[in-house]
Amino acid sequence: MTLRDLAGFSGGALRGHRLRTGLSLLGVAIGVASVILLTSLGEGARLYVTGEFASLGSNLIIVIPGKIETTGAMPLMGGVPRDLTLADSEAIARQVRQVRLVAPLAIGEAPARFGSRQRDVMVAGTTTDFKETRVLEMASGRYLPPGDPSRGARVCVLGYKLQGELFGGANPLGEWLRLGEERFRVIGVMAPRGTSLGMDLDEVVHVPVNRSMKMFNNTSLFRVLAEVNSFEEIEAAKEATIALLKERHEGVEDVTVLTQDSVMSTFSNLLAALTAALGGIAAISLSVAGVGIMNVMLVSVSERISEIGLLKALGASRRQILSVFLAEASILSMTGGLLGLALGFAGGRLIVYLW
């Protein structure tokens, strides 16, 4: 029996039981597609999270007020025994030699109004170095001017979406925008950036940090972002920053300093475990499909005893008969696997298109 004869005979047997063959193919295809989609989702989540942290900027350390025990996750709030002040931020810039740029950050929310249009916005108080540490680009105008962080002009920079919502099609540069009870002159519009770490940067108003702290009566900064000269100096910069702030805060270590690589490593490990778990779940469904093929072939052998007897009577050997059934199982698994690959690829493209 040639390979062509074997394939033709097995194909004919499968066509003779179309419903059973179709259900077997569907089971294998669903199992293969599940493995592809679930592992793709896990890997996609890992790449998304690491990409989000990479978008913060290169060689970044983040100083958070309050001592928070962490293995690298990004805490949002914590107990703050002592303020993280503008003076602390300036001390880091002056005295930590590994640091190239320092951007203090104060966060608040206020109603923004221009003419008859009004909406609540997030106000980010910072300095000119924030643009470079977060790798931001301008759509028009300029970013916050350099100068003493403790003395800022009444100027602001709009996120890209806010420009359209508050000013429509008009050019906002040079216009006065009211934030809360204060007025700020618009000097720039940020280029579209989207959501980063849960904050939609296109809906943020940037103002000088001291103006923000006065607006919201804040005495402590939300964060201090510091860009280190090189990746090799990140750990040294972290230790020097902690030591400096401990000295300034009367010997109490009351800040948490996070590094990008530790945060990214932790999330990457967590999501790698999640991907493995999802892959394991999908593999179970694939195993079920394989057991289904075995059951189908077992039933096929039981139903075709007379056919097997006829083949033996015609001179077919035991090995040839076994080859026929193995060929049928191979055709089922191969065709189902290819169909599953196509479904998995199409599902992945659909997920990319939608999200």
Structure description:
This protein has a six-stranded mixed β-barrel. A two-stranded antiparallel ribbon has the order 8-9. The protein is elongated and about 100 Å long. Helix content is 52%, strand content 21%. The chain is built from ten helices and twelve strands. With 355 residues, the protein is of the alpha+beta class.
Summarize the structure.
This protein is α+β, with helices and mostly antiparallel strands and 355 residues long. It is 52% helix and 21% strand.
- In whole angstroms, the N-to-C terminal distance is 52 Å
Strand order of the largest sheet: 2-3-10-5-7-6
Q: Would you tell me the structural class of the helices and strands?
A: alpha+beta
Give me the strand/helix succession. Answer: HHEHEEHEEHEEEEEHEHEHHH
Mean pLDDT: 81
Helix content percent band: 40-55%
Counted beta strands: 12
Show unreliable segments. 70-79
Estimate what percentage of residues fall within beta strands.
15-25%
Shape: elongated
Sheet having the most strands: 6 strands, mixed, barrel
Helical segment count: 10
Our Rg estimate from Cα atoms comes to 32 Å
